[in-house]
Design a protein that fits this description.
Layout: E1 10-14, H1 45-61, E2 66-72, H2 80-94, E3 100-107, H3 114-123, E4 125-130, H4 135-139, H5 151-161, E5 170-176, H6 183-191, E6 198-201, H7 221-235, H8 243-252, E7 269-272, E8 277-279, E9 293-297, H9 303-307, H10 310-314, H11 324-327, H12 332-335, H13 360-372, H14 397-404, H15 410-434, H16 440-452, H17 454-461, H18 464-474, H19 483-496, E10 501-506, E11 510-513, E12 517-520, E13 524-531, E14 534-538, E15 544-545, E16 550-551, E17 553-558, E18 561-565, H20 585-605, H21 607-616, E19 619-622, E20 633-634, E21 642-645, H22 651-673, E22 685-686, E23 693-694, H23 696-719, H24 726-751, H25 757-774, H26 780-796
Parallel strand pairs: 1-2, 1-7, 2-3, 3-4, 4-5, 5-6, 18-19, 19-21
Antiparallel strand pairs: 7-8, 8-9, 10-13, 11-12, 12-16, 13-14, 14-15, 17-18, 20-21, 22-23
């Protein structure tokens, strides 16, 4: 049996197949699929037990650190509190002990009362509510069968979730767009409810049943509507999360989408109906009767069986699964062809799902509009002979304060990433100019693509080791040559798919395409041509190659983080330790499982660091293991967005190393923007944990990294609160040791005389984080263990 490409980690469990509203835009009851008529109203005990068993065995087989289950319908509250309790308890009991359950329910809210909220608080079930905006907007579609408004009851439900005892349960609002509703009124109505998140959803439609486009609204009314909302959202300082807008911002920088309706990430979601049938996503119900069906059920089939279903495979095939029109589109990496269901056309010659989205024009306008509205300052690749222009993204004062305290949320790290991209562009221009302007065809293509397909160039130049090449070239390392520049241009050509041809030198039998992978080819000069359906490489011996020999492999440790395991880039040797070779399939699986577990731990124990890591850590380079008992990790100063790590034995250690090294990555980006110390200072300063004195930047880097180390051990102490045992004792001793070390280092920085006023302010932020840790009570044994460890480090030299 072939191995599946991606396990499921998201499950929509239908607990009731009917609804108490009669929304006329509902895809379950009002669109093409009619399978709901033959299904049981409520999920039965036998179906529930087998569903939980299937999810549990899948999580165990694929070593999933967490799964998300969404209780759905129909209207799931119709199942009643007792049935919902049984569902939640069955799912939790079936999962392995080391697999967390993210349990949610999506409801229209009209039956939500304190009995349900108390149950959800007890069982940790997050609640999402459907609401289309103000009363006028909501009543356009969301009414009872007799025409009564549901709006007051939904507002009552939201008010209940906003009460302090239930606020932590509120997951957000789902708002279906109707272009006849006033976007300003809709936005203001939902913003007034202070939700943690709002999803603005395009109404489900196909080429057979297209969305309404009222006269007088222009050719792209849905994009215009969403761009109005986007402008208000940005002006308000992004007061809540919006997956659509954030996904556009993320994918433009080469990161993952947060929604299946955008981006090229494979789907990892499956639906389980009340009769035990496995189905594809519910949105397919809008295509044709029976479209979501797989023919599989929980009694006769495993989830691995379902993952091999052709329909599931189609939703996991990325760029290759899109129509030729989509593959040649300059915004395809962000658009992703739109939602799979929206591509359907069933008339003669319609091609089924092999079409662009019925919202194609709207998606193009939306993406370009968001880009133009300020997706960070963009520095274009200069034209030949023009001086490089650096326009780094400014950090707001609140963001500088946030970083000074050691943290940095997603928006702050994205600002750092934008500034790093601008600096990389300028360094590439300077490196090319310093080289005597060799490889003019590569530079000309990058410049031309930067005007016609800037998102493509952004993705390629954001690759961490693109800047590494420029830094080496500017440092006089002539051995690196101009081949990497040609590789960058070739990768952009492949991504653009327009037919551009780029000569690229092949060394050591490999042709490397940054962000994509490498191709085995004879040494010499090859010509790479990007095409809408892929690429061709004409090698030096005349052979033609059309596939990557070793693609760059990406894994998804969590729904909001995708990371590349960069084991092919020849410039990955920028770390202080030897890099590992190409990972075997078994090693890749081990890394995937370890990263999933580490990501779960980071989200639980270091939430102040996890969001920034998810937004900015694009790659991990595997390193060779160090001597027995020594962990090996590294951050390269001229490679933003990547860390090097030799995979440790345990996931908690991996989580610690990720947090530690990404601190170095963040601070390096900060130092590119802000003068925290006098660069002319020649003094050497002792760090408490090292026997050798270091320049002030080394002390600053070490102190900043150990903010995360200290908080990690503090979180472990909390996890072991009151518990005996070797692991608990170690956590307390490590916390005692590192809080002392870090506090001392902060004061040495402050007293060094080498810091600027801004550097002193930054150090004060670090002190603000450290000071409360010193007041945390610890057993005397932990303090004595810290004393012994400190003495041992002093005796053996750190």
């Amino acid at each position: 049996m072939t191995r599946i490409s991606l396990p499921f980690s998201q499950f929509v469990v239908k607990v009731h197949s009917r609804c108490d509203l009669a929304c006329d835009h509902c895809y379950v009851y009002e669109h093409a699929d009619t399978s709901w008529r033959a299904r049981p109203r409520v999920i039965g005990d036998d179906v529930l037990a087998k569903t939980a068993e299937r999810i549990g065995e899948h999580a165990s087989a694929h070593r999933l650190p967490a799964v998300r289950a969404v209780l759905h319908g129909g209207e799931p509250l119709l199942a009643g509190p007792d049935r919902l309790r049984r569902v939640a308890e069955a799912l939790r009991a079936a999962l392995p002990a080391d697999c967390a359950l993210d349990l949610r329910i999506h409801t229209n809210g009209i039956r939500l009362g304190r009995e349900f909220c108390d149950l959800f608080a007890e069982l940790d079930i997050k609640v999402g509510i459907s609401l289309d905006g103000d009363k006028v907007a909501n009543d356009r579609h969301r009414r009872f069968a007799d025409g009564r408004s549901s709006h007051p009851l939904v507002l009552r439900a939201v008010a209940l979730l906003r009460e302090p005892e239930y606020r932590h349960l509120f997951a957000g609002l789902l708002c279906t767009v109707d272009v006849e509703n006033d976007p300003v009124a809709v936005y203001r109505a939902v913003a007034e409810l202070h939700p943690p998140a709002v999803d603005f959803l395009l109404p489900h439609a196909t080429w057979d049943e297209p969305p309404k486009r009222p006269s007088g609204h222009g050719p792209t009314p849905y994009a215009d509507w969403l761009l109005t909302v986007h402008g208000l959202w940005e002006a308000d300082g992004r007061p809540f999360a919006v997956r659509t807008f954030e996904s556009v911002h993320r994918t433009l920088r080469g990161f993952t989408s947060l929604t299946e309706s955008l981006g090229l990430e494979p789907s990892d979601l499956v639906v389980l109906e009340t009769d035990g049938a496995f189905e594809q996503v519910d949105s397919l119900k809008t295509a044709f009767d029976g479209a979501p069906a797989t023919g599989f059920d929980v009694f006769a089939h495993s989830l691995d069986d379902v993952a091999r279903h052709p329909g599931m495979a189609a939703r996991q095939s990325g760029l290759a699964g899109l129509s030729s029109t989509c593959r040649s589109c300059p915004v395809v990496r962000t658009c992703g062809g739109g939602l799979y269901a929206h591509r359907y056309r069933g008339d003669d010659g319609g091609g089924g799902f092999d079409n662009p989205s019925v919202y194609c024009g709207d998606l193009m306008t939306l993406i370009n509009g968001i880009t133009a509205a300020g997706n960070g300052p963009v520095t274009s690749v200069p034209a030949q002979g023009a001086p490089p222009q650096v326009v780094p993204a400014a950090l707001a004062p609140t963001q500088i304060d946030e970083l000074a305290r050691g943290y940095g949320g997603a928006d702050t790290v994205r600002a750092l990433a934008r500034s790093q991209l601008a600096i990389t562009r300028a360094m590439l221009a300077a490196a090319w100019d310093a080289s005597g302007q060799g490889r003019p065809e590569a530079w000309s293509l990058l410049s031309e693509l930067d005007g016609s397909a800037p998102a493509v160039v952004d993705v390629v130049l954001a690759h961490p080791y693109a800047r590494t090449w420029a830094a080496r070239q500017l440092a006089g390392d002539l051995g690196v040559g101009l081949g990497p520049l040609a590789g960058l241009a070739a990768a952009a050509a492949v991504r653009a798919g327009r037919g551009d041809a780029v000569p690229v030198p092949v060394r050591g039998g490999w042709l490397h395409l940054p962000t994509l992978g490498r191709i085995a080819a004879p040494d010499g000069e090859a010509v790479v041509t990007g095409r809408p359906d892929g690429f061709t490489v004409r090698a030096a011996d005349g052979s033609v190659l059309t596939a990557l020999t070793e693609p760059l492999r990406r894994v998804r440790p969590g729904s909001d983080w995708t990371v590349a395991l960069e084991d092919v880039d020849p410039l990955r040797d920028s770390h202080d330790h030897a890099v590992a070779g190409r990972l075997t399939d078994g090693e890749l699986l081990d890394w995937t499982g370890a990263l999933r577990e580490a990501w779960e731990l980071l989200g639980r124990d270091l939430p102040g660091y996890a969001a920034g890591i998810g937004a900015g850590l694009a790659a991990v380079t595997p390193l060779r293991p160090g001597p027995a008992g020594r962990e090996v990790s590294s951050a390269a100063r001229q490679a933003f967005g990547v860390v090097g790590i030799a995979r440790p034995a345990t996931a908690p250690t991996l989580a610690l190393l990720l947090a530690h090294e990404f601190q170095h990555v963040k601070l390096g980006a900060v130092l590119d923007l802000l003068d925290l110390f006098d660069p002319a200072d020649a003094g050497l300063y002792f760090a408490p944990w090292r026997p050798d004195p270091r320049p002030v930047e080394g002390l600053l880097q070490g102190t900043y990294a150990h903010l995360a180390v200290t908080e990690y051990w503090g979180a472990r102490c909390l996890a072991y609160d009151g518990l005996p045992g070797e692991a608990a004792d170690r956590a307390r001793a490590e916390f005692a040791l590192w809080r002392r070390y870090t506090a001392e280092a902060v004061e040495r920085l402050a007293e060094s005389g080498a810091l600027t006023d801004l550097g002193l302010s930054f150090t004060a932020g670090m002190r603000e984080t450290v000071t409360p840790w010193l007041a945390v009570p610890l057993p005397a044994a932990a303090e004595r263990a810290a004393d012994r460890a400190r003495q041992q480090r002093a005796e053996i030299g750190g």
